[in-house]
Design a protein that fits this description.
This protein is an alpha/beta fold. The protein folds into two domains: about 270 residues, Rossmann fold, CATH 3.40.50; about 90 residues, formyl-coa transferase, domain 3. About 35% of the residues lie in helices and about 15% in strands. The protein has 16 helices and 13 strands. The strands form four sheets. The chain has a six-stranded parallel sheet, with helices on both faces. Helix 1 packs across helix 6 and helix 6 crosses helix 7.
Amino acid sequence: MTKRGALAGIKVLDMGRVLAAPWATQMLGDLGADVIKVERPGAGDESRQYGPVFLKDADGKKTRESALYIAGNRNKRSITINLASAKGQELIRQLAKQSDVLIENYKVGALAKYGLDYAGIKAINPRIIYCSITGYGQSGPYADRPGYDAIFQAEGGLMSVTGVPDGEPGAGPMKVGPSIVDVMTGANAAIGILAALRHRDATGEGQHIDLSLLDTCIANLSSISAQYLIEGFVQPRRGDGGNGGVPSQMVDCGDGKIYITIGNNGHFVRLCELLGRPDLPRDPRYSTTTIRGENRAELRALMCQLYEPWKQMKRADILKQLLVAGIPSGAVNDIGEVFADPHIQHRGVAVTMPHPLSGTLKVVANPLRMSATPPRYDRPPPLTGQHTDEILKDDLGLDASAIAELRSGKVI
């Protein structure tokens, strides 16, 4: 028997676009929620247009399904609705009335003019969990500003601690590769929604969740933010240097790079033995984790000298020695090497789903591994409006003539 998802019976109205909100609803869909994705007629979600990679159909022709869109939209049904029309707004209200969750990432106040803000939806469904995701939050002097992931990496301090340290070639702040603030905000949205559902089930009370990408970025700097709040310490960029144990850095081998993290004194003792310098842990400048942190610059320079012979050795041989010695380390992989790794393949990180255009589609698996209610992969990312008629008929009870009238009026 196929196991039901943990959120079976929960209906989510997804009015999100691009990545943060869709990421949250994909997580809920993976866990069994029925997610209805609302898109603009014709254009669909803006993320469908973001290249450079687009899915190819069975004949090898490029479709309009971008990799960015595919990354955040499985396990959903898509309906197209024109929110600017009164009839379109009424369709949203009808769907929201029967939904447990509504998530949106419109600019502050944009949905209020349609009566689709939290106050408007709460009036018809007091139990709803209404989650708003914006760049700066629902209140504050910046609330009306637009913004995207990289802007919040900049304003939230993430860029300031990422990149080559001052005084070295190429020094300066740097953006993290993926749209990490979007993804972190989506994960936080899913957590908040699950907590709100738990509260609602206990009390009958719905609520509004106000999530800001800027807030999320600052919170997820974790210890870096904590260091400033405790002591006013502004962490400099450390390049590939770690934030905890010292020394931690990237090391060149003859055929690639590895990364080593020395998290405690035992690791340091064993690394020094491997490098032929068993005396270093007894040096008062390097004897404890805290002291090594205070002398990280000079220790790094010394370690670079000790690692020099590794430039003539194979990466796999060095990693084997480190593994035997119990020293935390790993290969610095590109994305192709990641998916070719036998452990990654064993973990099932790539999942194959059917797709109406390409036949099959590989997606990245949900990282949750749950024994009783594992994530599901029931629906591939939908085509624009793929389920419009199905949702209007099965969820709202409209007949064929009513659906045709909506279509002719450009409501759907």
